[in-house]
Amino acid sequence: MTGQLRIFAGALFVCSAFAQLIPPGTPVPRRSLPPVLFINGFELDCSGVSFSSTFGTADQVLQANGEASVFFDICSVPGTPTIEDLGNALGTLLANLRFTDGQPVDQIDVVAHSMGGLVLRSYLSGKQNTSGTFQPPAQIDVRKVVFLATPHFGSGVALNFGVTPQLRELASGSGFLFDLGTWNQGTDDLRGVDAIAAAGNGGTGLATMSGFDDGVVALTSASLEFYQPGRTRVLPYCHVNGGGIVSFAGLCSFSAQGIANINSAMHESAQMIVSFFNGTGAWKNVGVAAENDPFLSVDGGLIVEARNADDTLLSMSSLKATASTGVSKQLNIPSGDVAYTDLFPAGPVTLTAIDPLTVTNSVMLPAGGTEPYTVKPGPQIARVFPAPTNVFPLSLAPGMFVSIYGTALAAETAQATGLPFPTQLSDAQASVNGTPIPLSYASPSQINGVIPDDASGLATLLVSNGSGNRTVNVFVEPAVPAIFTLDGSGSGPAAAINASNNGVVSSSNPLHAGNYVELYATGLGATTTQNGLDYANLQPTVTIGGQDCPVTYAGRAPGYAGLDQINCIVRAVPPIPLVGNLVVIVTSGTRSSNAATLAVE
Prior knowledge:
The chain is α+β, with helices and mostly antiparallel strands. The protein is built from eleven helices and 39 strands. Helix content is about 15%, strand content about 30%. The strands form eight sheets. It has an eight-stranded mixed β-sheet, sandwiched between helices.
């Protein structure tokens, strides 16, 4: 044990008697770090449930780390709630959390075990009981999340025992899981919340195979590959402590240690939690990276639905996956309209749905987790990004110039030659909530256009052409600034004009302190017309080399739909000069732009 860990363990022992688990509804004391909310998983019998029965002494570990703990017990919600019901109850708890000084808790971290992670994701997406219905909260106060053995794409064990609403939703191949995994642009970005996951491989192998599960959840299901790569660590734990029903069923040994049942600061899950919430990278050295796991490094999982050309959901009798190596597998279809499988070779995969409609699509399956796919003829939408660059989370803004990527989006390539943009180009059409999107370019793999000015919140994006329709949800925030770059990389020289000579800013035409710069971007959001100019309702700030660039105008570039212009004054704050290719960032509301560069001397 290192000296630092000895000190931490000693502090834990001294303060363990004073560990602070705040009862729900009780004001939360302010600490050096945000309070931590714990969410437990599915409970077969709520009569003996307590914080320690799931999380052991985790509250003591976090108390020693300067954090107060709050417990959201799923058993506190009466009746037989669905996971959506629990997500709504969680939202109510978060809205009512207060510090002891009466101020709202405006930032909180979360540790979620098993189904508790799905409860959190249901809250973040606003998932409702009606299939395909979401009401995402406008504001999210969750800062960081650690998922412990969350079955993001279900559990085969739940499939065998799905006799309650929660177990049916937890079962591999459930419609709930497909909905949750595809609510925003066909995926789940967790609303941009910073997250990591611990996946256990301490099961006996009876559930799947040795080394591939924690007795209940497979590694591909517990992985956060769908969110971001490099965020999943594999730990040698069982889903729960041994000795209970999981051991009696032969899924874990009777001596197994649970992935969430923390018994000291040295428990690997505790090390991940403390490091991640403290903002250090030590969690990356705990356990094994998914990219180095013998299964997750080469295999992935699939969850698939089928639709017809008009985007109507179909029941399937058969769906086959074929890898580029020739490996082929029939997927499981427990409910008739969602198919799934695990341990399939990553890489190019051909998906073939048969009966009532035979259709084949090609997809690229990444290693390391499970991915959702829709098989259908006609247009498919992969992602919708601001035209200048990819962004994370997957949010758009009113009046934003966007690029829609996919397949079969248009029958042929065509480009607009004049402005304003036409409402139809080639045979492709697009709309948001029924309002047509003006298009400037269309090809089978990409179409460009402008999000309507009145779009907000969760909206439906429709792309249609002669071969069919495709609709996905998109999330529209008040502002999501994105800077255009001269090389199209999103990280190179910014598209900007030096107002002192009306030339493009470059190393041969750099800016100087006192110059006005005209910076071109998109995503500043809705505008109000004043004196012939369209001013952004939410005014941005600009920094160049970390120093403020006072904004004198921010709004639409006159005469160009979807293009925003920001004018600001370059200044150097003594004794720090502004020299070199400096990073420029635009911030509006809660979102910051990509980091482009400007030449300054």
